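Weekly sync, protein design subgroup
Attendees: M.S., D.O., the rotation student, P.L. (late)

Item 1: inverse folding check
M.S. brought a backbone from last month's batch and wanted to see whether the design step gives back something sensible before we order anything. D.O. pointed out we never logged the input encoding, so this time it goes straight into the notes. Structure tokens as presented (239 positions):
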């Protein structure tokens, strides 16, 4: 389709001799938020690492804006417009919040655009403006997640991939981050969200991909997935 941004086709990958994903396929349209749901070990983080170029595909591939990206370097993938907010945030702890954010724009040469985007992310996360000269490693868990998301946005991406949005965070922080995800999605940014809490994931995304043991088991509107008895029992704590 003309509005398809990311198309994953028969993608398989793993680590050395250990295969983690088999024949994964789904797509994301422009401005859409899609969630990946599955238990620990289902392959969600591995999929994001493959889409970021951190590990190679062993079969299949993925196209971004119609261009095949499998086999490209992480730098090429970032330059194409895919940003990855990794599990655990992976900030540069001794560096300031400000410098961590600027690292998200390291491939950009449009200084005026970088300045505008810096103002934008600081308006989305006002606490980061207050903490901009503070070492990122001294932030709270929620503040670090805000900084990691803001750093990803500094690349001015077309697709933002977020691995475990709510992991280890207080409910109030998760709600605030959720509101931010809704706001940036309304602005037209596509989001691929990995989230252990299926209820949160379904509230934020319009479609969901259910991964089980490295394979896609279901793809559907999140409203329908939330009503699926098998999904309710396996991922939502409802029997």
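Designed sequence read out in the meeting:
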């Amino acid at each position: 389709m003309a509005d398809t941004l990311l198309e994953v086709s028969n993608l398989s990958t793993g680590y050395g001799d250990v295969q983690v994903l088999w024949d994964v396929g789904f797509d994301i349209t422009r401005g859409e938020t899609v969630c990946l749901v599955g238990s620990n070990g289902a392959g969600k983080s591995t999929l994001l690492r493959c889409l970021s170029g951190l590990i190679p595909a062993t079969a299949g591939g993925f196209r971004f804006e119609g261009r095949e990206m499998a086999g490209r370097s992480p730098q090429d993938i970032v330059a194409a417009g895919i940003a990855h907010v990794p599990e655990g945030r992976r900030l540069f702890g001794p560096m300031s919040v400000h410098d961590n954010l600027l690292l998200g724009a390291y491939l950009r040469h449009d200084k005026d655009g970088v300045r505008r985007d810096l103002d934008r992310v600081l308006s989305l996360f006002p606490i980061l403006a207050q903490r901009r000269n503070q070492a990122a490693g001294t932030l709270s868990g929620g503040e670090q997640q805000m900084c990691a998301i803001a750093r990803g946005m500094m690349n001015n991406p077309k697709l933002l991939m977020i691995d475990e949005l709510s992991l280890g965070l207080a409910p109030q922080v998760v709600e605030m981050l959720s509101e931010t995800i809704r706001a940036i999605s309304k602005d037209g940014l596509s989001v691929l969200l990995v989230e252990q809490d299926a209820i949160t994931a379904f509230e934020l995304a319009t479609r969901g991909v259910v991964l089980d043991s490295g394979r896609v088991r279901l793809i559907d509107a999140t409203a329908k997935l939330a009503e699926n008895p098998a999904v309710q029992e396996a991922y939502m704590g409802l029997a």
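Discussion: The longest helix spans residues 171-186. The chain has two domains: 1-81+157-239, 87-156.
Action: P.L. to compare against the previous round before Friday.
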